[in-house]
């Protein structure tokens, strides 16, 4: 795994996360061993979940409910909801 570039590690991570493929498919696709695929995945995962990276790049939505939702009784069901990354709303309280 010492000869795997950072770009290839990110590509392996994205392939596994986005497409939901298994480790065996990634081994075949990138022509790497199971150990290398696993180490690459976990290395990228550890970097993006580390406090310096996470706090710099991940921003949570503001707690303020938009006026349009607050003032319109049609949106009463969304009173205590927060927006998710995909645009859906989740109950937060």
TrEMBL record:
<protein>
    <recommendedName>
        <fullName>DUF8040 domain-containing protein</fullName>
    </recommendedName>
</protein>
<feature type="domain" description="DUF8040">
    <location>
        <begin position="1"/>
        <end position="49"/>
    </location>
</feature>
<dbReference type="InterPro" id="IPR058353">
    <property type="entry name" value="DUF8040"/>
</dbReference>
<dbReference type="Pfam" id="PF26138">
    <property type="entry name" value="DUF8040"/>
</dbReference>
